Amino acid sequence: MMTAPKPSYSCACFYTDNIFIQEFHVHVLSSQGCRTSEQFRNVLETESFLAAEFLTAVKYSKSPQANVEGLLHHLHSITDKRIYRLPVFIPEFCAKLVEELENFERSDLPKGRPNTMNNYGILLNELGFVDALTAPLCEKYIEPLTSLLFPDWGGGCLDSHRAFVVKYALQEDLDLSCHYDNAEVTLNVSLGKEFTDGNLYFSDMKEVPVNERTYAEVEHITGQGILHRGQHVHGALPISSGERWNLILWMRASDVRNKCCPMCDNEPVLVKTLGDGDGFTSVREDREQTVDICTLT
Ligand SMILES: O=C(O)CCC(=O)C(=O)O
Ligand SMILES: [Fe+2]
């Protein structure tokens, strides 16, 4: 059996219930103009940009005896809220990535914005970074970790993601309101640059009543990532100087979201989208899209 590329879907709630909704455009770049430099591409072909501790944690997670207790020796648990810190990229890579993104920002190429809450920042699919960087990162490196840490949130069957960079600066966005992500699992990696304040804060899962929530603040350390459940309520405090850039991966598991949309908490009402959609799949379409090779020969 061979499966054709699956169409992508959003839940209709995105168009009706989204309190941050703004006019939102997704642009696809033509191949000329914005291409990552050869030097940058070469870095992506090796593991040299990944932190040694990250590679060790991934290797452990892929080993036959791996379990969550063992993995926790390789990560830093922030409180008991299932929020984990770990080094992901070497700092030199973060600096290169930001430089590349700044070149893109300066260009007059059309730009979509990461999500309805950020006015600045960059969608990484517009630079070809999904195939080159974030898809292999999710599949080969992050999923072994999340399958142990978040099996109850589809951590072992993540099948799509939205990759973007958020940017905060004094004349631009300063902070990010309290929210939960359109994701089952999120990775947030600090890319620098220099800034003061702007810590992340985590409350509780969204079903916890507001008056029972407690808050934990989390500092940014360049190259280090924070792994958390998408439905964990969080936000970012204002920076008071400099520029803050973070790479965000909203990772989705269609097995989980097809049953209940994480944004409206109902069974999703599927709307076919032209772009990447929000990681929902249609069982009926899957059946239609599946080609039985035997019938072709
Ligand atoms: O500002 C940050 O680093 C957090 C971004 C975030 O939570 C998001 O984009 O979903
Ligand atoms: Fe978020």
Automatic annotation (TrEMBL):
Top-level taxon of origin: Eukaryota
Fe2OG dioxygenase domain span: 159-253
Keywords assigned by UniProt, alphabetized: Dioxygenase, Iron, Metal-binding, Oxidoreductase, Vitamin C
Transferase recorded as keyword: no
Protein's recorded name: 2-oxoglutarate and iron-dependent oxygenase domain-containing protein 2 isoform X4
Cofactor(s) needed by this chain: L-ascorbate
Gene name linked to the record: ogfod2
Chain segments annotated as transmembrane: none
GO MF terms, alphabetically ordered: dioxygenase activity; iron ion binding; L-ascorbic acid binding; oxidoreductase activity, acting on paired donors, with incorporation or reduction of molecular oxygen
